Amino acid sequence: MSFAVPLTRREAIVHHLRHEIVTGALPPGTVIKDAEVAARLGVSITPVREAIAQLAAEGLIDIAPNRTRRVTHVTQKNALELIDVMGVLATAGVEWGVDNLTESHLARMRERLDEFVAGLERGDVTAAAAAGADFSTIMIMAGGNRELQTHVDLVVARTRRLLALNAESDLWQVWINGYRDVLDLLERGDRPAAVERYRAIYQEYRPRVQALLADPPADPRVGR
Asked: pTM score, two decimals?
């Protein structure tokens, strides 16, 4: 029997704010004020400050020299840099973990892929993105390198936000097609080809993001 470890107050606030940022409930440019967040969530200011510091470390909140905190803007430059970093880290993790995958791992990956597609079909971007991230995590964790997974986790939320902010684009199809191909290759036992197909997801995804963000539409909510 296993028991879930309850979140600390700081962790709960991080989880809540991260969800709001990733889904766009707190759009880019939104000013984050300790007292307002504390009052809204019914908590003290100290864990709010700690949570904001963690989200700043993750790149989801910018802290200006005057200490003003705002939800980070997604620019073409930082989006492409993020994709490059994510591609290197995640592909390395998959390459290290792929030889340790079992039938149980593949079954879980199939479940996550189905959840990914189902989430998109019902318009639940948050659930879809979480399932998609888990698909990769299963392969990475099979390698047993928890340090690498920690670094992947630091950038995965920002990748999910990029997808959420472009929920109506065809960016999602890149991942659906890629994950389906990767799983098919793994189930056929061609693990080197599966790694290369996984790497190709990022190579295909990057130019599409570059084109999409070349002239992004203005967000009327920013600056309110």
From this structure: 0.71
